[in-house]
Batch of 2 targets.
Target 1
Amino acid sequence: MELRPSTNVLHFAFILTLGKVFAFNLDVKSPVIYDGPAESDLFGYTVATHSYNAPKKEVHQLGNRTVTIEVEKKTEQWLGATLHSSGENGRVVTCAPRYTEAPFTSKEGMIDHRYIALIGRCFLMYRDLSIQREAISPCKGRVGQPYGYCQAGISAEFSAGGEDLLMGTVGFSSGRGGLAAYSLSAEKNIFSPTASLKIHAYMGYAISSGNFWSQKSTEFIGGAPRGNDMRGKVMMYAYSLDRNDIQIKSEILPPPGIKVGSYFGSAICVVDLNNNKFSDLLVGAPLASDSDEGRVFVYVNNEMGALDVQDPLGLVGDNIPYGQFGRAIARVGDLNKDGFQDVAVGAPFEGNGAVYVYHGSRSGINPTYKQKLRGSSVDPGLRLFGSSLAGIVDMDSNGYPDIAVGAYGSNKAVLFRTRSIVNAEGEIQLSRNQIVVESDDNLCLLDGGKYYKCLNLSVCFSNKDKGAAKFAGLGITYSVDLDRVKVVRGTNFFRRMFFLDENSGDKLHTINGVLNVTKRGGSQCTPPRTVYLKACNEKDNLADVASSLTFDLDFGLVEPCGSTLCPVLNDSLPTTHTAKAFFMKRCKNQKVCVPDLAVDGKVVLLGHDENRRFDSQLRLGLVKELMLQLTVSNKASDYAYYSKLVVKYPSSLSYQRTGDCEHDRSLDNDTQSQLSVICDVEKVALPGLSNKTFSIKFSAASVEEDISIIVTAESQDLDANEKDNSKEFFIAVKYEADLEIKGYSKPDQVIYSGSVKTQEKVREFQEEIGPEIVQTIKVFNHGPSVVDWSQLTITVPKLLNKDDPESFLMYLLQVEVIGSGSCNAVVNPLNIKSVQLNESISTENSVKQRRTRDVKRLSCGEVGCQSFQCSLGRLRQGDKAEIKLTSRLWQNTLIKLDKPAVVELETIAQVQPPAKVTQPDVGNDAVTIILTAKPERPVAGKKSTPWWVYLVSVLGGVILLGVAVFILYKLGFFKRKNKSLELTPEELLPMKKV
């Protein structure tokens, strides 16, 4: 039997499991291309890399054979549409999301042959890809909705700790979707809640897990690309095997401006980008932008569980229309050995397809891609290259992880091997770096009897590579160029130095060579070469003695290198080096010059309008730029030769180029917290008793803490008074922001009714507790400063009687953070389940607002309250954080009252920014939300009237009526006082006709 569905979705992980054999650095010259079997289609729809140790197995070179793993033969189930490996020597899971169960069994237990259940299932395999156990199908055997179309396995992945198998169930509950967690130890399934999902949200389209809240906890991540009114969203879940449940912790919504149908959340990748031991998140939106260019949004963990978007615009690749950048995202390991994890992003519809490689960094991710793999460059016949990605595993045992790319449109898959990185450093060593013009020392005689000033030059290289591969020598090709800066319009006339060709005697300005470095560490150098300076009395005389002499080295690796996969130089290290020699002049009366440099100046803070200036405090959000106005003075009479000004500033400032100043790029490194700018005071020397002024600008957009800038004036000579050579400028940072909190309850009035229920009845389902209430709390930052890690304290009335743990008032079911942040609330402590699968709030117990009398307000001074804290992430000016509290009124407690009454329940929320933030208005930092609960009318439980009351009332009425009649009779009320009307005999005769 072969591993393929009816549409023949196939993978090739089994191709790469031969046992252990022996980005800019991804090899594109000799990729390994795998073709699907002749009878299959869509080979490469999903890919995985897998490796395992086979101690007794013969070692083979990595080939391009395709092997079929036999699992089961059943058409239309799409076996292999999902594939995941837990890594080296780990397990593998493959799924068939269209697996069906037929016939369908109704709730009444009747078999209905008209329907089949599209339930899906997954298979676990050992490291050698043998089947580990029976298929895992969380929806198998369950009756009807919501399980009948769950399609378990549309996505699948082992949890971060490896104890559980996560499966996406996009068809669960009428397409709301969800996650199913299968405990590999307890062998049971747990489904995620659907309370925050609408029909056809497709939660579980993509899933993953990581350590977001702490290094010991594992949270699940699920993408719902059709949720959030078709804009997509990602949800974080907390999982507890002991409690046998999965709870929603927070929602991650796309940045503002993302259009409907962007499919945000269709691809997700959990990875620790900045190596802080907390997981970060990448979310793909392949249909974002006007022409489906696609975006990937990076959310960096603030180490408190909150995920802050690194850039609201996201990663864009080359922004090619219809490329669908972000269709696939994969963690690919540390490709360049810089200590940070890297990621790959697929754009399968960009031409024949493309894959972009991004490097992680201390700040999250480098937004500029490091390498681009084009499908057309690998094989012109590839189609949909980049539709699936996998990495992490070192397939060729060179100490670097490799990348697999699927191209199911052409029934192929490609393995890109990672080239080892060589940390080679080159330098030029000079026998001396000072040339005294007036001196006759260090002269060399050439043929013709002419003397030239000269020095010796050697080229040295060191290899500091610590790769796992055996070192077999390193061939480095190099060139040395003399006085390159003096080449004007292609002519060498102004060059002041030359080499002498030993064979032809020609003067050369550039030499080339190859040096074989035969060992790691240390340094190997070429034999010295003599460099000659032009004589002053020649026609092409040495006219420029002010600027330094430059010796420029360029180097690279020799190719071909003799092996199948050549190494590559570390591109974070320079492949050039410049050595300099300086001309020295004598001072008038002294052999050594003794200048006296001093620095003075001030800091000017500029707003967005440059005409607006601020005081000494840098008010974040208002100050745009920082300008240093400096004066360098030489207080001595001697000249200060080759003097310079060194400005050291924190990396939070961004230097803006100034004419005489250059950024010192030798300090460019993610580990550097301080950078520097070097300014040339004069081209040759600053005369005695003179000064020069500078203005240096920095952007303050990324400043978050107090700033210290140190400015130092230096020269090549010993200074007469070094105490005034440096000056420190300290700029205090002021955070100023107005946080405002608002809140409301939906509904804000409810009624409670019915008779007292038993505890068992109330705890059976959440709907038995009482009416549902959703209270929303919003925190706004009106700016101007950015605010990080604000603390929100929320207090909810929990118990009517502090001493009675059963006297619940508001039973908290869920706390959901929309935006960046997390809360530590204890929700649903009794673990009461819900029978409702929809997300609409029942309002059958709500009541229209009306004037209420005899209201009793229950505040925390009278009842037992539950308090918890929420840590809010980064709030820029105009941002908001939203927290939704879902509770139910425990109406049993109010019904038990001797006299049910109208009560008001207070929920109080207060926001507290960090101590460093100053607020101009603290009166809007707290809000009280009132929920009014009223008894049903008439009040349930009134006592019935006793029967004797009715009897006495009737008898009393009869007696009163009799007394009244008797009195009237005595008064003659019933006797006639007027004459009676009598008719005469004539009046009795009938009337005659006329």
Target 2
Amino acid sequence: MTSNNHEGEEVTMNDYTISEQGVKPFEQYIFKGWVTPFPLPCGSKFPPRTGFTGDIETVSEEVTREAWDREMGDFNLGLRMDITGDYDVISLDVDEYRDKKGMQNLVELMDELGELPLKAIPRSTRRGVDSPAAQYFFLVPRGLKWASKVCADVEVIQKNHRYSAVWPSEVEGEMYRWYIGDEEIEIPNVKDLPVLPQAWINYLQRGNLIKRHAPSEYFGNTEADEWLSKVAPGWADAPSAGFLTGLEPKLEAMVGNAHDTLNDSLWWAVRYAVLDGQPGLKAAIEALKAKFFAEAERDYKETAETEYARNYLGAVNKTRGDIEHKKATPFLVKYSPALLTGFTLLTGAQKAAKAHEDLTEKINRSMRMPAPLAVPRLIALLCPELVTVRNSGSEDSILNMAVGETLQYGDLREILEKTVMPEIHRYRIQFEDDSDEDKAGKAVLSKALALCEANRPVALFENTANAVRDMGRKFTASKIDANPYLLGVGDEVLDLQAVIDNPDGGLESWLRPREYEDAVTKSLTLDIRAGLKSLEYREQSPIAKETHTERLLKVIQPDEDTRQFLQKALGYSMFGKNKAHKFFVWFGPGGSGKGSIVDSVMSVLGEDVYASQITPEQFKKGSASKPDPEYTKSLTTRMTFVNETDEGTKIDASAIKRATESRSGRALHSNNVVKQDGNTITFMTNRVFSFEHDSGVERRLAVIPFTQAKKAVKEAQPHINSEWREHEEEKVWFLNWLLEGFALSMSEGLEQEDYPPLVAQATARFIAEADPSMVFFQMLERTGDPDDYVRTEDMARSYRDVTGDLTIAEKALSMKINRWFRDQGHADDKDRVNDKRVYRGWTLNEE
């Protein structure tokens, strides 16, 4: 192995602690820009010397040299991720051995984020040149914080978290070496390390903010013990069979490697009990602790207490953090989601434990009921998301409010197999075989099994609906998802009334817990708080301040007034009522950004959740008398986009007016009619569709021009990752933008006279081209002066001249003109002068 000394001369390094020229390995690292190479015990990676790792300031070269000068004999060498220059450094630690699949997982992630040139960059490993298990080093912008994990079996080694054992260290008889591809190399100079691609930088920052959630209150040992005793079912009981099976290999893995396995083992045990409800956590923790200290006696007794406490509290507090930030669901709230509030605090844990105790008692009582009654009652108890829905003119149905779907026979079977029968088994193991309680449980289990095998368990369906209703969970069909002010977000709702009342409050102030009475079944699929944290961090970081979505909108609509009107139109369309009777048209050539914005809307509001798309044909034909499942489904969403129209498409004016009021639809093979007045239409087209003029349409129509070049729109979007819209920060930024638009639409309105210049011009041109008669009617001006008048025959002549329509019959033309005056509210201006029909108080400007 070769290296360079401080004078730049090439020297050959061997496997001993001092080279032939007397240059020690730690000095070589310092020469190459690695600031903190520190001593590790001979033959081991742990423990590091105090003062060289963790969340500390940069260690000076003087302190590093003093540490090495004090050491005698052979030592391994550790690297803290601290270097000279304008960058920081991180290492991706890939585990790919035994059951570890780090490289496989990393390659799958590359499909999303882009390739990493792993074969062309320096890596460190003791497993040989052919092993993918190694640490891969990258330069990154200074001052950023990173996730601790990239994906399963791949961790991020960084300045304040972990360190790297490197050449010439030996562990278990294997020496660490540096490689690039198939070649062994000298210690790499930090200047030669590659810069991590931006997509990966963004991802690892985002991951840091999403995955590493800290609880609002940190627990010490006493509080951690008390919290676990309340939230881990059967805390002090003997370990379950599942616990015993999982615990055995973890105890074996601690032999000779206690430090590396303790954290994962405690993390597994705490989550297995708290999240999966497995009894025996106290005994499992004690077994892990005893094994850890037995191993520590031989290797690092003096730091064992601190090390154990840190890992134990880390497992408890990280689990609490995940629960608090809704990244994990504890077992005790599985059947009572409302108990999640405050669950990570001792008071909330006590409340959840009491509720679970009460539920257990109800389950036990149900088990003693006759089996045909016990099974539906257990379903009702164990599935609080089920409600009975009273349907007009048909039988009651059971709705799963968690997913917004009506329960089918197959769903009932799945509930029996995955929820009810495991609970029956859990009940039976409390009692001795052939006891009265065991026999009752066996009878209920037998009934559940028989119902699973039934072709159409009609009686079970009816009995379950009754049991759910008896527990007070019932709605009429018209109430489900009917509140126009509410949008579901997981177990919370976005309250649009809160947006109106407090438009400057921000997303978190507009959220509140979802309540049963809200009758909300739909949900946006995004993590608002994670996205907000990521956006907050973006503001403080050296990377681009704007999201991709924000930049794209500015490119698509560079005129600020037009862009704000687009924001108001989309925000208004989120509301569950089209009170202003608006009909939006996005008009412009293909590739001008219409579809790009729709893609962002669908990503945030969800396809067929709160937004939908239909064809022009479906729009024109949709009605309750003509079944169309797609059209009917669109009526249940807040906003619907109608895709490009064909050349020469004619839209009846009445269809446009109907689209802004109440519409009905019917699905195939169904007599149920869906009636909705809260769906707002946006028509996307690159051609003007024709419709006969109607002043009612004119007042409703708002045409937003899209004129940007296709190339500019394409270049404004990221090329490295087609899934960029799915990033939480992108979705949350766009949702906030939409809600701000809603607030503006409510405070400022969307009246025609307030359209910004480009929208007003586009609307006027669109109407004129869609119906040439509009040019003629715009020549009429009401003066209100009784001496002014326009003869009907003069209007007919001018109409033919302007529109070029010479075939229209006199009567039809007269009716058209009279209808226009009537629509304008001036039918009473009709009069006669010299026995000629006129409209008094009007002039006709033919100049």
